[in-house]
Write a structure and sequence with these properties.
The chain is α/β, with parallel strands linked by helices and about 350 residues long. The chain is built from 16 helices and 11 strands. The strands form 3 sheets. It has a 7-stranded parallel β-sheet. Strands 2-3 form a two-stranded antiparallel ribbon. The protein has a two-stranded antiparallel sheet with strand order 6-7.
Length: about 350
């Protein structure tokens, strides 16, 4: 097994020299693309789209046909694991994800068990394998999962939220129960990500979407410790090739130094952090991914180009930068604006790399 022909993304994660800064976009296969909306309509629902390896492959490849992106990310959802645990995931139009059976009773929590990826999440693994084959060695494929704490937020609340009061009440009143959920989730995420590697994923990303709602002490205890546990259990080399891992905590700027010691190869940054300052704080321990404000993509080509130039200049010369947004691309982003961004990053970043 060899690296893809365009391996700039993998090399940047490992802080190896690249001719330019690679770029991909979180949620790059999504509702801002007309072709995605057409495929989703054919599928009938979001979960039907996720559960069809053929359709998931189709939408994964759609942005690659439009833009010169340096990585693909398999189309799926972070909530596939709790759905496989029997919590009954559904997506309500205009409301987002909901679970029919959220974890509220102690007996439900004690009965929780990690799902077998091959048995319960085979549709994701099949999509990974199909996408990898379809890429034909051109660019790398990213596999992913939600973090144990982020998954727990949905599993306990039953839906998305802002304050996650039920989760925090459990954290302070019954931390033993929350730790049990997080331990099961960590086991599940580890086996799930390793299964994605076996089926063709060449890099991994852990989305800690809600870690930033925690206090300083609680973040390390209830989020970072479990992500560190996962990373220690991941396959680091598959068929002779390194499989790098990215950790992204939205709102995690306070803990960059600690995240950098988790064993990950790169830290994802949201848009609230200056990437140059972040680079000074973590040094050469990890690569950095990010971190343009997604709202910039709603502006103009000129603003997008100048804002991308600012991020590149802030990181400065050298290796270890993967350009991305600080969170997922908005569904209201004009597709041509993504092209402007990708082309600008490729053009403007060459000056920061030794040819």
């Amino acid at each position: 097994m060899t690296r893809p022909r365009n391996d700039t993304f993998l090399r940047a994660l490992l802080r190896e020299p690249t001719p330019y800064t690679p770029v991909w976009i979180m949620r790059q296969a999504g509702r801002y693309l007309p072709e995605y909306n057409q495929t989703r309509a054919r599928a009938g629902s979001f979960m039907a789209l996720c559960r069809s390896p053929d359709l998931a492959t189709e939408v994964t490849l759609q942005p690659l046909a439009r833009f010169a992106l340096d990585a693909a990310i398999v189309f799926s959802d972070i909530l596939t694991i709790p759905d496989a645990m029997g919590l009954g995931l559904q997506f309500v139009e205009g409301e987002g994800p909901r679970f029919e059976r959220p974890l509220r009773e102690e007996w439900e929590i004690r009965n929780l068990a990690p799902p077998d990826p091959a048995e319960h999440l085979g549709y994701v693994l099949d999509a990974v394998a199909q996408v990898r084959k379809a890429l034909a060695g051109d660019i790398p494929l990213i596999g992913f999962s939600g973090s144990p704490f982020t998954l727990a937020c949905y599993m306990i609340e039953g839906k998305s939220g802002s304050d996650f009061a039920t989760v925090k009440k459990m954290l302070y009143r019954r931390p033993d129960l929350l730790h049990h959920i997080l331990d099961i989730n960590a086991q599940a995420v580890t086996s799930y990500l390793n299964a994605q590697i076996e089926n063709g994923a060449q890099a991994l990303m852990i989305f800690d979407t809600w870690g930033g709602i925690l206090s300083h002490a609680a973040y390390e205890q209830f989020s970072l410790n479990y992500m560190t546990q996962i990373i220690s259990g991941l396959t680091k080399v598959h068929e002779g090739v390194r499989v790098p891992t990215i950790v992204f905590t939205k709102g995690g700027g306070l803990w960059l130094e600690r995240i950098a010691t988790s064993g990950c190869d790169a830290v994802g940054l949201d848009w609230t952090i200056d990437i140059g300052s972040a680079r000074q704080r973590v040094g050469s321990r990890v690569g950095l991914q990010g971190n343009l404000d997604p709202a910039v993509m709603l502006s103009s080509a000129e603003v997008i180009r100048s804002s991308a130039a600012d991020v590149l200049a802030s990181f400065g010369a050298g290796n270890g930068h993967v350009f991305n947004l600080g969170h997922g691309v908005s569904q209201f982003t004009p597709p041509e604006h993504v092209r402007v961004l990708v082309d600008a990053v490729h053009e403007l970043s060459a000056r920061y790399h030794v040819s």
